[in-house]
Amino acid sequence: MDLNFIWFVILGVLLTGYAILDGFDLGVGIMHLFAKEDLDRRLLMNSIGPLWDGNEVWLVTFGGAMFAAFPHAYATAFSGFYLPFMLLLFALIFRAVSMEFRSKQEMRWWRQAWDISFTVASTLATFLFGVAVGNMMIGLPIGADMEFAGTLLGLLGPFPLLIGAFAVATFAMHGSIYLYLKTEGDLQQRIHRWMWTTFGIFLVLYIFVTMATLVMLPSAVTNFRDIPWAWVVVVLNVLAIANIPRAIYLGKPGYAFISSSATIAALTFLFGFALFPNLIVSSLDPAWNLTIYNAASSQKTLGIMRWFALIGMPFVLTYTIAIYWIFRGKTKLGKFSY
Amino acid sequence: MDLDVLFLSRFQFALTIMFHYLFPPLSIGLGVIMAITEGMYIKTKNRDYEIMARFWTKVFAVVFAMGVATGIVMEFQFGTNWATYSRYVGDVFGSPLAAEGIFAFFLESGFLAILVFGWDRVSPRVHFFSTIMVALGSMFSAVWIVVANSWMQTPTGFHIVGEGMTARAEITDFWAMVFNPSSVDRLVHTLIGAFILGAFFVMSITAWYILHRRHERLAKQSFTIALVFGTIASLAALVTGHEQANTVSRTQPAKLAAFEGHFTTGPADMWLFGIPDEQREMVNYGIAIPGGLSFLLHQDFDAPVTGLDQFPPEDRPPLQIPFQMYHIMITLGMYFIALTLFASFLRWRGTLFEKRWLMWVFVVSVLGPYIANQAGWIAAEVGRQPWIVYGLLRTSDALSKAVTAEEVLASIILFTIIYLFLLAVWLYVMNDKIKHGPDDVALEGADGGKTGLLDTISSLADHAGPSMTDARKGKEKK
After folding, report:
1. Shortest Cα distance from A191 to chain B (angstroms)?
2. Going by C-beta distance under 8 Å and a sequence separation of 6 or more, which residues neighbour residue B283?
3. Any residues with CB less than 8 A from the CB of B187 and at least 6 apart, and which?
4. pLDDT tens profile B50-103
5. Is A184 helix (H, G, I), strand (E, B) or coil?
6. Cα–Cα distance list, B160 to A13, A21, A292, B84, B354 (Å)
7. Most CB atoms closer than 10 Å: which of A216, B283, B425, B448?
8. Beta strand pairing call for B282-289 and B168-171
9. Cα–Cα distances in angstroms (integers) from residue B323 to residues A323, B28, B256, in the given order
10. Among A249, A158, A265, which Cα is nearest to A209's?
11. Which residues, including other chains, have CB under 8 Å from residue A64's CB and lie 6 or more apart?
12. DSSP assignments along B396-450, one per residue
């Protein structure tokens, strides 16, 4: 196992952590406007209040790690996705400040405005993540100089748009299940219906995405020929998806949440698996792909950074587990809530 | 000036980093005061300290959220606008950014949750520990960012591999990169700048309370803590600033020459103010201490100091901005020292809080450290030009090739609109929080002398009845 591969895996772990953790709080944002009462909306925001900031750090660290380990991929991807990426940044900014500002004033228009901003920003951010993943899967027009040579409209093909919609549905479902765990009473009953609806939409889109991938992107499954054990992940993915309605039906939302987390982890794995050993696929010429070798930093840097990961990760896991433990249980509003 | 990608990308970076930098130094400075206040509470069990610790925490949360929201932009902007730079230096420059994520951001964000939302969920000691961790986390973040930036000023610990298009810097010695010749000096000075801001921020708010006879006992207590902290920090800024000038004279002589408008190598004057003229190579309308810079650097009024004449014109930094910003920073630094020493003397005599005019001076003086922090960084960054990595890579060679001027212009327009809007909302919410004051109804005094638009709005909000949060106080289960 070489360092380049290790760093590919570490980036995968960071991305998976981000998708699972920020996935549910983005999902809460997507569903936010479906709660009608002011009190309910405050409960929704406060259910993720202590957690969203830490969840977003996974993305920031993913960015920093990608810069350090694969600077060419970092440079190509972010300059290539320039305007969509700026939109994503604006969405993330508005999400953060919506939560912070919303309940600081009593005025109805004030709260209404931040509520809308919160949902729009959460939905847009999720959608753009999906569009980016879709584009990474079909490949980008990358030239011999590793530079993006496409246009903005070229990034909005049908497949990326489909993945964008799929991402929204996935996080909406994941967030709804999370909310079911964190609420009680009437609100929880209403969220029970959200879980079924979002699961239905997720399932339909999952089938579409699977078919579209197999038909339009035969390259996405080539790695299975060399590494057949990866089919296990596909099977686990299907089982995890099947377990979501089962667990909801049996009244075990904890299992449903674990299953939706496992689903997201499996999907992220399959995304990475389809790309490997590429980071960015050139749709112009496979020789111009950015791989984990030609886009990487020197072995020395990858080696130093491995120590960062080894020292840092136990701390990160400790904080994460401690925070989720301290803020376990149903969300209550208190003096320090949003 | 041409609206080319170079100018626009530099403008965008300046805009986003300067807006971002309104928040982290305040988090760092306020974090220390928060930790001191809460520590006093743990030690003395005096409830006054607790009330104030809770109040500063609430203010801190709003500052911190803005820092996070605007900080994400910075993490990715090297890739979006400076792709060639990212390819060239990623091997060296990327690791401090990754380290910041792993070692600082996770620490900060995790303990921030306890700090803000956990008052009733953990014991006072665990909460105090979290406060310290958040304060330390925000400093760790500064450590890695200043290390990364200092490497751009004084690069060491690397070698160049490849040629032409594929050339890039690769690391040879990680610790030489971290402890490059300027990183320690610059880090200490940056942190002290943040401490001064935190102290002046607290003094501004509490002086306002004292003037309006609200929360007087609490305000005087916090003012005193901040005054002690601010006096020490202001004096320390002088020492570290001097250290830094010494370092710059050795490592980036062109920058120091620009700071002081020093054109010809030889004994150098120290300008108190002036307007440098690049064409005629002189400083107009100024007053200088003859040989002052030579004396500061070499303790000898006649010692030669490298001037701009040692550098070909294409390697010289622009003059006007670094010169003015450097002098604004120093003048303000002197002002902080004079003001805090004078106030400390009056505090010792016991007459400080009776001097209403001085309290007003403190209310507005919070702008000083804001300007000084920004000015110092502008001087440092513009003074490094035309290099993005000093002596190694020119800023004009560092751009993204895939990005057009129209795209950058579009994002600048959006950033400007959004940031102006956020700034207005942030000021409004902060103003409201400050007018509301620490949560202790029993200590509320008469609320007199309200004037101005913001006051009126805030009084309307006050009279709209108790807030949701207050109404729920009684219903808390835990």
Report:
1. 23
2. B261, B271, B274, B275, B276, B277
3. B142, B143, B146, B147, B150
4. 888 989 998 998 898 888 889 889 888 998 999 889 988 988 988 898 888 888
5. coil
6. 31, 40, 21, 15, 63
7. B283
8. unpaired
9. 48, 27, 9
10. A158
11. B75, B94, B97, B98, B99, B100, B101, B102
12. GG-S-SS--HHHHHHHHHHHHHHHHHHHHHHHHHHHHHHHH-SS-GGG-------
Q: Identify residue A124 by its one-letter amino acid code.
A: L
pLDDT at B443 over 70: no
Residue B109: what residue type?
S
User: Strand B304-305 to strand B282-289: parallel, antiparallel, or no bridges (unpaired)?
Assistant: unpaired
The beta-carbon neighbor of A53 closest among B68, B89, B476 is B68
**Count of Cβ atoms closer than 10 Å to residue B166 Cβ:** 11
- Counting Cα atoms < 13 Å in the Cβ hemisphere of B471 gives 7
How confident is the model at residue B406, as a pLDDT?
87
For residue A313, which phi and psi values (nearest 5 degrees)? -60, -40
What is the model's pTM?
A: 0.87
Name residues whose C-beta falls within 8 Å of residue B265's C-beta, 6 or more positions apart in sequence.
B304, B305, B306, B307, B309, B310
B459 CB within 8 Å of a chain A CB = no
B317 phi and psi, to 5 degrees?
-70, 160
* CB–CB contact B410 A83 (8 Å): yes
Query: In this structure, which amino acid lies at residue B391?
Result: G
Query: Do the beta carbons of residue A272 and residue A12 sit within 8 Å?
Result: yes
Average pLDDT over residues B350-375: 92
Cβ of A323 within 8 Å of Cβ of B113? The answer is: yes
3-state SS record for A263-322: HHHHHHHHHHHHHCCEEECECCCHHHCEECCCCCCCHHHHHHHHHHHHHHHHHHHHHHHH
- Mutation to test the B interface, candidates A100, A153, A306, A311, most B Cβ within 10 Å: A100
Partner residue opposite B101 with nearest CB, options A57, A304, A322: A57
Nearest chain A residue (CA) to B127: A326
Tokens of B184: 């320690």
Please calculate the CA angle B136-B137-B142 and round it to the nearest 5 degrees: 95
Q: Which helix (H) or strand (E) holds B196?
A: helix B183-211
Closest CA to B79 of B87, B71, B91: B87
Q: What is the Cα–Cα distance from A170 to A209, expressed in whole angstroms?
A: 12
CA gap B391, B96 in Å, rounded: 21
**pLDDT tens-place string over residues B186-237:** 999 999 999 999 999 999 999 999 998 888 888 998 999 999 999 999 999 9
Tally Cβ neighbours within 10 Å of residue B365: 21
CA distance B295 to B268: 8
Q: Which two three-digit tokens encode residue B388?
A: 């993005």
Enter the DSSP assignment of B316.
P
Which residues in chain B are closer than 8 Å to A320, comparing Cβ atoms?
106, 110
- Of A31-45, B107-121, B453-467, the poorest mean pLDDT is in B453-467
